[in-house]
Amino acid sequence: MFRFTHATLACALVLGLATPVLAAKSAATAAASALSPATFKVERDTLENGLTVLYHEDHSVPAVCFWQWFKVGSRNERQGITGLSHFFEHMMFNGSANVPPKEYDRRLESQGAYSNAFTSRDMTAYYEEGGSASLEAMFELDADRMRALSLLPDMLKSEVEVVREERRFRTDNSVPGLLDEALYTTAFFASPYGWPVVGWMNDLERITRDEMVDYFRTYYAPNNCILIVAGDYDRKTIRERVRKHFGGIPRQTPPPRPVNSEPEQRGERRVEVHYPSETVSFQVGYKAPSVKSPDGYTLQVLSTILSGGESSRLHQALVYTQRIALSARAYYQPGLEPGLFELSVEMAPGKTAAEGEVALYAELDRLAKDGPSERELQKARNQAEASFVQQLKTNNGVGQTLGFYEHVYGDYRKMFTAIDSYRAVTGADCKRVAKEIFDARKRTVAVLVPEAAEGEAK
Amino acid sequence: MRSIRLSGVAFVAAVLFVSASHAAMAPALTRAKLANGLTVIVMPSQRLPLVDFRLVARAGSVQDPEGKGGVAQLTAELLTQGAGKRSAQQLAEDIEFVGGSLSADAGQEQFTVSAELLKKDFALGLELFRDCVVAPTFAAEEFGRKREETLGAIASDKSEPSVIAEEKFASYLWGASPLARPARGTEASVTAITREDVAAFHKRFVAPDRATLVIVGDVDVKATLAAVSKAFAAWKRSGAPLDDPYGAAPAVKGRQVRIIDKPEATQAQIRVGCPGVSRSDPDYYSLQVANTILGAGFTSRLVNSIRVEKGLTYSISSRFGMLRGAGSFRINTFTRNDKLRICVDAVLAEVQKLVDEGPTDAELDKSRNYLTGQYPIGLQAPDDLAGEIANVEFFGLDPMFIQTYNDRVRAVSMADVKRVLKSRFCTQDLKILVVTNGEMAKKALEGLGTIEVKPID
Q: What ipTM score was computed for the predicted complex, to two decimals?
């Protein structure tokens, strides 16, 4: 959920997070020079109040990007306050002790800087990007809102309408949005991944200011945050400047662990969404492990083999050869809780979801039975390496990559060692994990049933 | 500080983004013209081991044959579906095996081919890129498949309110102009396209005398120029006239409203606009500064009023769409159905107020700073920089456009902004397009102007 619709940011996130983040480091290739800790330098500082700060210096453009990753997302919510994390993301721009509403963006933009943010199940991340001289303003504004956010009643009242409009835009009037929501709510009974990040419409109306104040104290504490400064800054003074602005914000009791009581799935679950559409589409989710599982690397290799470009298995089978689908995609990103290995297929006009499911499961079965070829494995590794370099094209991408590894993997240095894990993935691993994960009894299927506008099924 | 270095007659080198307070500078760009008319520009950038190729040609849907809208875009789609000695599958396999990307697209008047690879795969990248541009196969089987996929995408997007709004607004605004046609065509026009149409389009419009090739990345300039010259030497010029086969958008009188009926929608997509200016308009910088005040960033008048104060939308923006020979001004937003009229009235009132009163000095400063602060950031990635360098050529801009952009924005005065606000920002003579439940919308918008309700098709 973004604070604002921007095609460019959406693209950045697709590169950085939505595609499998396959890290790569290879002594044998030119790409390696950009990726080793020796050439891609990152420094870490931990303040007394528990705040983690990562620095990456780059003077190629006189600009800097400042990210703040709060270790809170919709997984930290509960029934009744769903959507609070994302609503909060909006409120972080609406006034703090010394910065009245509207002032945050006005001051940034006056100095040529831009800000945005996103919320997911695991995290809420904010960034500003501007000329090197605007860094001081970023520090002042962000330290002020981390220290004392206002949460003014009037602003809460108008901003919740903006969020509800965002929900109507992304979910209620969007076929992929409706299917995604149906898939997760059906797949999870007792996991905090079950409810939508944007929240239920009724919850958005009833969330109270007290609940938000409570949330702020617990989750927006410095000991629950990672700062990242990437780009053109003065190395001699930077640590001192960050400490000056953020060092005095008091530490809080660490947040409670989210409750996850998800029972084992013992059979396929299906859900229909009726909505007017000319074509049929469906999403499939298989229960998949969290970031803690060593199989995460294998799952990302599998998703690349299945849908990494036009030469991938799903595109070749469903789109190119059988010509029954307009697109077929696989997606797995490790999260803090067990999640889903997702597949989404949009059928060609006149083709049914049943036809698509048969073709899709045949491909998954084939992968589980025979495993990938050696060339497919090598291609997946090469794609991983290239996509990793691509994420570092901008200061923004650098900050996003560091934040993701530091938060989800628990250490940014995992981005350097991940390649060894990918290289260690064998064909036998792929077979074993595919067989285990692509189990029909642990599958959830959300299908769009097209309706005429009047409400009649077509 | 700015510096220009000349090395040989054909090469112009310039230093990008040198701010007075900062020593950071990007290296020089080198320009050459091949015998067949292809302009080649190489910009070394050693920050990452990547290389980006970007070719832009004077070709697009404005050149689609009558009744065959979608030829340009189908041609673009087919470039990567078999070229040189490779089949579609071999092409995809070879580029993806090295983790590279290769794609082509066509808009209204610009045809773009892009590739990005690791530096070590430069030779393979150049070979594949060249083959796609110069020697696409257009195999009958691939043609049939891609045409079918295009028809599928057209059908599928009928449930996407924002896509409907974009296409319907373009056709509303441009009237009988070729610019009114959706670039990917309609069901009827795509069905009418033959393989021969595509091959003929490629031969006539995707040609070296209509194109610029830009290479940005970790490359050696001399070796790159030599390799590119050799690779593209046999590409034949077309000789087709370099014209822009369209005129300005038809003038609008009064406020006109068109509603596209999508009965189940709970949110109304809204577009407001009028004819604008071409990319070569001398007021370019003033228009950017003025438009930023009205509708770009998070502190614009429109965001401040419609989103922050009134909570009517999640997203609102305004912009000037500029082509080589024409342009449009438009505002995009959406709101819940029961706020439709309030939202439209509030948007129009904000524009009127800014046109009547002009911005404050602080707003002018903010707009100039915002544009100059964000411009270099937008060019940090090699593919973005390649795109901007190609645009300078495509639109025939000052060769120093990138280097002087910030100075020119800073030179925009309050008088300039007030003048273009009055002359180019429409408040009375404009078209409004809404996609939502037709019955509801017609009632809500009563009295706003002439109203018509149309089905999605």
A: 0.91
